[in-house]
Amino acid sequence: MPRPVSPGHPLPEGFLMGASTSAHQIEGNNHASDWWALEHRPGTFVTEPSGDAADSWHRWPEDMDLLSELGFNAYRFSIEWARIEPEPGRVSRAALLHYRDMVRGALERGLQPVVTLHHFTSPRWFTERGGWSAPEATELFAGYARTVLPVLAEGVRYVATINEPNMIALMHTLLRAARPEDRGAGTEGAAAHVARALPDAQVTEALVAAHRAARAVLKEALPALRVGWTVANQVYQAQPGAEEATAAHAHPREDVFLEAARGDDWVGVQSYTRTRVGPEGPLPVPEGAETTLTGWEYYPQALAEAIRHTAAVTGPGVPVLVTENGIATADDRRRVAYTAAALAGLAETLREGVDVRGYLHWSALDNYEWGTYGPTFGLIAVDPETFARTPKPSARWLGALARSGRLPADGEAGHEGGTGARGPAVAPGPAQATSGR
Fold first, then answer.
1. Topology of domain 16-404, per CATH?
2. Active-site residues: which are they?
3. What pLDDT, in 10s, does the model give residues 110-141?
4. Residue ranges of domains in the chain
5. Around Cβ 393, how many Cβ atoms within 10 Å?
6. pTM of the model
């Protein structure tokens, strides 16, 4: 167990402090993926395609240089299955070497690579075969995990098999039920529909099976590898009289995926805001509350609550790694204030004895947020024309914390100015309405 810390005191030895990205959101031109196909489908709900994204396929050394220079010691990135296996059974040796070089590059810069094998996107051919609902989905994903073993063997310690399986199962439901007449229904209607939609049960079972099969492949070949997956934590808060309704609402949407992590080497917490639940279901953001560019309530306390809930469900012996936490805002002072408050809450959980091994901020870069470039989560700004990277004050502030090996005290750096966005929320796409990517 990591030794307890108090806010403002040194972090546990070996604690990871860094930032996260995903391949499709930053690499650009992921032509063989199902999301690229969706972005360019006639009548799609996607507002704008990903295009070149942040051109990190070519500029990853610059991204890692910046993170290292800022003071971070970890970087979470994903391997893109569609690049590794663009056609069924055809493996790209060039893509394998590319990701091998990324792992080596991270280690050379003092960044511990936290590698995700599946971050929402799949090869187009996999989805055309039925995706996670296809009978061979488990076998195909396990085969992909076996294919990337040479990349992971380069010195990776932490691997996430699947990012936010609860959101994948939910998106399956939403895409299957999407109707042309629902387009343009507005933020409130879209958010309400997403909040009440139920993740597909068959896909949920398939994702759990695929995770376990991939974990078995990875652990057999590389026993020292620490394997887990990440879950989108919605921080369901029961309003008076709604305790049973909240538990029933939360289980298929979150807790079943946390229960599947029991026995794993770690579990990823991904938290941004809370969801209040009344007897009839999820409630809207409280009137007058500060909201972010995705229309979510500004609620940094969510991180500590998500950590506690995750630890309670997975039980002892499953360490927590915060793999995503952040805020979509154009006011970087609010990013500092939000992150300071979230980290103060993380420190409280450490003091309580929760085994938290790291904090990886979402996101390292301003990037493609599943349908639009509008919501800016990044510590580093990216010029859309030149791809020039510019670290924000929040990046230097958080990097200095990482370098010093300490967490902020409660309220420290929480008065960086700014009041945040309180006007109408930006209409989110289906994935945005529930999760931070």
1. TIM Barrel (3.20.20)
2. 164
3. 999 999 999 999 999 999 999 999 999 999 99
4. 16-404
5. 13
6. 0.91
